Amino acid sequence: MNDQQIITKLRSAGCKVTPQRLAICKLVLSSKDHPSAEQLYQELKKVYPTISLATVYITLDILKKIGLVRELRFSDRSSRYDPNTSPHINIICPECGRISDYEAKSVKKFLDEIIAETGLKPLKQRFDLYVNCEKCSNKNKEEHAK
Ligand SMILES: [Zn+2]
Ligand SMILES: [Zn+2]
User: Fold this and answer.
1) Class for the domain spanning 86-146
2) What residue ranges do the domains of the chain occupy?
3) How far is the CA of 65 from the centre of ligand 2 (A)?
4) d(CA 81, CA 76)
5) How far, in Å, is the centroid of ligand 1 from the Cα of 43?
């Protein structure tokens, strides 16, 4: 999505587009690592020293409402933001919190099958796989070798 498309989307949602808001949108929409609001804030502060965490949250909320990002809430009350809104699998490392996407065709097929079998119309879905990432599994191995 280019700047103009983002601006059009925000305006059509009745939202005033400021340079800070646009920067927040661009950063989260281009991210692949499911950032938290805090991570986005720390990154944006380098370019926009006056930006506030509240502005980041408000903008993420707007993006959520217009369906451009999904909020992934976790049981420890943390939230991560995912610009990939199509059905996919989030591979989550429980040790370091790293999240990456796995695009599996079988997910779509699986959903279609459930919809066909039950006649249900899911409002949303979420698939999380918890797997230690390479870095963390190596660290664990080293610790066990001690
Ligand atoms: Zn990890
Ligand atoms: Zn994802």
Assistant:
1) alpha beta
2) 1-84, 86-146
3) 17
4) 15
5) 21
**pLDDT tens digits in sequence order for the chain, 146 residues long:** 899 999 999 999 898 999 999 999 999 999 999 999 999 999 999 999 999 999 999 999 999 999 999 999 999 999 999 999 999 999 999 999 999 999 988 999 999 999 999 999 988 899 999 999 999 999 888 887 76
| pTM for the whole structure | 0.89
Q: Cβ(55)–Cβ(24) under 8 Å?
A: yes
Pick the CATH number of 1-84 from 1.10.10.10, 3.40.50.9100, 3.40.50.970, 3.40.50.150: 1.10.10.10
- Hey, how many other C-beta atoms are within 10 angstroms of the C-beta on 88? 17
Q: How many CB atoms lie within 10 A of CB 142?
A: 9
